[in-house]
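re: ur msg from earlier - yeah i can do the protoporphyrin IX containing FE complex, just paste it... oh wait u already did. ok heres what im feeding in:
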Amino acid sequence: MPIRSRMAGTTAPPPSRIRRFSRAQRLLHLILAITFFGMLWTGLCLWSPALAEVMNRPLAKQWHLWFSIALGISFVLILALRPRAVGAFAKEVDNLDHADRAWLKGGLRRVLETDDAPEQGWLNAGQKLNTAITIGLLVVLTLTGILLWLGERNTTFRFSGSIDVHDIATIMIVVLVCGHLYLALFNRTTRASLSGMVDGTVDREWARAHHGRWVAESEAATDESPD
Ligand code: HEM
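and the outut:
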């Protein structure tokens, strides 16, 4: 769709790249990725006796705790400093519209095949679900983690199920992240999204094919950036 130039009402083709994620959103995602893999690695060292020889248990436990604290503090800081960036994302995830329901009717096939998918907004229904489930699992991991930490200090907080729930949530989030990494790094039709999390922009025509309604809305608005 051509964009009207400010000069003498002429029309110019829109730039080939479109802004997808703001700096604050990318920073939050980067911190999430680093702390996630940090917690995963230190968690594996706590779980496996073989890996405990690579990183001893007391050190792994300390780092495990610090990664989770770093994630929590970063989230609060970014939310406080850039509420619009976090708010825009939360609003998008919270809004499951008719296009999302149509997308979901295609089942799992939609994740890999986008040919006959209904036109999607900024995030498709699969991404909204991925975000909601990831956040839910992070909350479960935090709560059971706090109980495990408290349980080591006070028997009132020691519950036999805490560790099982912590482990099951870990397995679930690892499966989810593996699927997420496959789509972001390897799947032919979706890997063009990676630059959106690196420099903030994606190819406009790719975005039009995958998130057509979002591109149309961005082009209609004067400011394409979410923050
Ligand atoms: C180095 C590893 C990672 C890479 C390369 C990566 C890549 C990406 C990319 C490219 C997007 C944007 C997709 C789009 O344009 O719509 C994205 C979004 C997202 N990422 Fe990651 N990611 C990584 C790690 C993680 C981890 C560890 C988590 C969670 C624990 C995570 C959670 C999310 C969520 C919730 C979204 C928004 C919804 C979605 O696109 O599914 N990412 N990621």
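cool cool. Residues 20, 29, 32-33, 36, 123, 127, 130-131, 134, 177, 180-181, 184-185, 193-194, 196-197 surround protoporphyrin IX containing FE (CB under 6 Å). ping me if u need the other ligands too
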